[in-house]
Write a structure and sequence with these properties.
The structure holds three protein chains of three kinds. Chain A is an alpha/beta fold. Chain A is built from nine helices and twelve strands. Classes of the chains: A alpha/beta, B mainly alpha, C mainly alpha. Chains in contact: A-C, B-C. Chain C: It is found in: Cell inner membrane; Cell membrane.
């Protein structure tokens, strides 16, 4: 499958266009602030890994980028378009589902718990949106769905129901489902956290391949090894703010922030 | 004649009907609860024929319309020399019918207590009686409150059928008023409202108890 | 045995009565289903008046005796100029009654479909109506099959109540046989057995449906 985006090695990161722009983002659940002023730019073909302790707000941030959780302040733009809201004079109104679907048309999402539809085969899971959203004809949708499944190495599992697949295979189907829509960016919400340890590798392998091909990706993860190896930018979050962001080398070898140092120490101790 | 007129004109009659409904349903519920518990205890018997008889009883009752049980008691009784008045026949019928449902509720309640808790009790040297009294029953009560009150509500609704075997409860009262006046629909609306109030009150009671007992869930 | 004599002598009447009961109950369950589904979506609607209306509807039909509901429908409709046959009135009352119970069953099923599956569909730009039709409802049917089977059994038994507005279903057939034979115990026992057998069949069908729908379940 042809992935859009240029070969990432040839352009300096700062020259590439911004795909997702987050400005002064805040989010509260009732009176409780969860995100407290987040600024972040994700550029074409960039791989951004978001790390941090549990409860730091990293998953909420990702869900706000998809508008699955509506943010309360600031703005998120997808390729220049405001996500989730429309300005009407002074007031900001929530977008209807059609407008919202239009803005996030090029955003794919992969969830921690896969969220496959259990009553459909792998092929049907991938093909449904091709039929009803991209309005492809049945045979064309099936062809593209099979292509996407082959890409994640599951060409032979098209007829299986999710319950007949391992966790790792289910997550790869979920990636194929997002991929088949030809998104410009894919958001991954802890894609390997629900997997048995021996199944993590196959999912990370698919993600690595996507990164190499130039897919723009934002990944909330606990896989420090993957972040160190594949990320262009690592973002460390704690208590609803970004405390430090930089290249993997800067974050993992030269952490400046004390909480980041502490977090990395805990992680190192645990992995021995 | 409006519904309000009907209510005010026939208030004493309606009240006596409501009282009869409450009275027969309460007695039938007490009977059904007791019999249901006995059935469930017998169902735990080590004798297979006893368990088999309990299961058959429960399945027969649950597969049969309550109206048939009432008809067999009321119309069938005399043919074997057993003449039962409408009220006792109604209470008995609702009671033995409801007992099958209560037995099932108790069974589900006992089954829902994890085996591990019983084993933990046994390992600590608790007697079988204390395990039932101190571990099983307190938890079971909390778990089965919704189902228990669902069944009590059911019995209130089924009690309307006693009008067919001439018990002067609410529904019968409505028919009587229809016969005495020219109005057809107002008396039925009036008793419907009374049923609705009674049943809603019983259901609220259940919700209240459910919340009271939900701590430590 | 008197019992078997009666069964043999009145076999045609009994068959017709049983068939009437089966058809009336089956029709009520089937016709009540779309209504129940609509009310279930109403119960989880974001629109407050709709939610309230559905909750009151559910409370009314679940909170009053079916006998009274049948009498209300039977007498109320002519008084507003709708003249219905007893059978139509009976089926209508049973439909309205079961739709409230089915609404509650479907509502429970709706909350059992994981929210993440809907989010995944939203992220793929699938319209809300399509999400319901293609993702939620197919799973709902599997989740609610046991409860709907129980509701079917309950409606089959409760349909005996429509004998009071002289619909000649199974129980009323029994009453007619009793008045001819003066053998209430045997006849009602026989009728009870027919109900039990029909309920066993429904339970068996329910289990079959459940097994069929279970293919590809358990995410």
């Amino acid at each position: 499958m042809a992935l859009n985006g240029q070969p990432r090695v040839e352009l300096a990161a700062s020259d590439r266009e911004v795909v997702i722009e987050v400005e002064e983002l805040t989010k509260t659940f009732g009176p409780v602030p969860v995100l407290n002023g987040i600024d972040l730019k994700i550029r074409r073909s960039e791989v951004v890994c978001i790390i941090g302790p549990s409860g730091s707000g990293k998953s909420t941030l990702l869900r706000c980028l998809a508008f699955l959780d509506p943010y309360t302040g600031g703005r998120v733009s997808i390729e220049g378009q405001l996500l989730g809201y429309k300005q009407q004079g002074e007031r900001r109104l929530m977008q209807g589902h059609r407008e919202l679907a239009k803005v996030r048309r090029n955003v794919g999402m992969v969830f921690q718990h896969f969220n496959l539809w259990p009553h459909m085969t792998a092929l049907e899971n991938v093909a449904l949106a091709l039929r009803v959203t991209r309005k492809l004809k049945a045979d064309q949708a099936e062809r593209e769905a099979r292509e996407a499944l082959s890409k994640v190495g599951l060409g032979d599992k098209a007829g299986n129901y999710p319950s007949q697949l391992s966790g790792g295979q289910q997550q790869r189907v979920a990636i194929a489902r997002a991929l088949a829509m030809k998104p410009h960016v894919i958001l991954f919400d802890e894609p390997t956290s629900a997997l048995d340890p021996e199944l993590v590798g196959e999912v990370l392998g698919v993600m690595r391949q996507l990164a190499v091909e130039g897919m723009t990706m934002a990944i909330v993860t606990h896989e420090m090894g993957f972040a160190a190896q594949m990320a262009d930018t690592v973002v460390f979050m704690d208590r609803g703010v970004i405390l430090e962001q930089g290249s993997p080398d800067e974050i993992f070898k030269n952490p400046r922030n004390d909480r980041l140092k502490q977090f990395l120490d805990t992680w190192r101790t645990r992995s021995f | 004649m409006t519904v309000i007129d009907t209510i005010s004109q026939f208030l004493p009659l309606l009240l006596s009907g409501a009282w009869a409904t409450l009275y027969v349903t309460s007695l039938a519920t007490v009977l059904a609860l007791g019999l249901g518990l006995v059935l469930e205890l017998l169902n735990g018997s080590s004798l297979a024929p006893v368990r088999w008889m309990v299961r058959t009883y429960v399945e027969i009752m649950r597969g049969t319309p309550v109206l048939i049980v009432l008809f067999m008691l009321y119309y069938g009784g005399p043919s074997i020399g057993l003449v039962v008045d409408p009220v006792p026949a109604g209470i008995l019928g609702l009671g033995i019918y409801g007992a099958a449902y209560f037995a099932e509720i108790f069974r589900a309640g006992f089954q829902s207590i994890p085996r591990g808790q019983i084993e933990a009790g046994e390992m600590l040297g608790l007697s079988r009686t204390s395990i039932v009294l101190r571990i099983k029953i307190p938890q079971m009560l909390r778990l089965i409150i919704p189902a228990l009150f669902g069944q009590i509500v059911m019995m209130f609704k089924e009690s309307a059928l006693l009008s067919i075997i001439t018990v002067s409860e609410l529904t019968k009262v409505a028919t009587q008023i229809v016969n005495e006046t020219s109005s057809i629909i107002e008396p039925y609306i009036a008793v419907t409202v009374i049923y609705w109030v009674i049943i809603e009150a019983v259901a609220r009671c259940g919700l209240f108890l459910e919340r009271r007992f939900s701590h430590g869930a | 045995m008197e019992f078997l004599h009666i069964a043999w002598a009145y076999k045609e009447m009994l068959l017709v009565g049983a068939a009437t009961t089966a058809v009336i109950s089956g029709a009520s369950i089937l016709l009540g289903m779309p209504l129940g589904l609509a009310f279930a979506f109403g119960l989880v609607s974001h629109n407050r008046p709709i939610r309230l209306f559905c909750a009151v509807y559910r409370s009314f039909w679940r909170g009053t005796p079916l006998l009274v509901q049948i009498l209300l429908v039977f007498y109320l409709l002519p008084s507003i100029g709708l003249d219905l046959s007893p059978v139509t009135a009976a089926v209508l009352a049973l439909i309205l009654n079961t739709s409230a119970f089915q609404a509650e069953i479907f509502r429970g099923g709706l909350s059992a479909v994981p929210k993440g599956q809907v989010e995944a569909a939203q992220m793929l730009g699938i319209a809300p109506i399509t999400i319901r039709r293609r993702i939620v409802i197919p799973q709902l049917l599997r989740l609610v099959t046991p409860a709907i089977t129980n509701e079917f059994i309950s409606i089959l038994k409760n349909s005996s109540i429509i004998s009071v507005i002289s619909v000649t279903e199974l129980l009323r057939t029994g009453q007619q046989i009793v008045s001819a034979t003066y053998r209430p115990l045997e006849v009602y026992g026989l009728i009870a057995i027919i109900y039990i057998v029909m309920n066993l069949v429904i339970a068996q069908l329910g289990r079959r449906a459940e097994a069929r729908l279970a293919r590809g379940a358990r995410a």
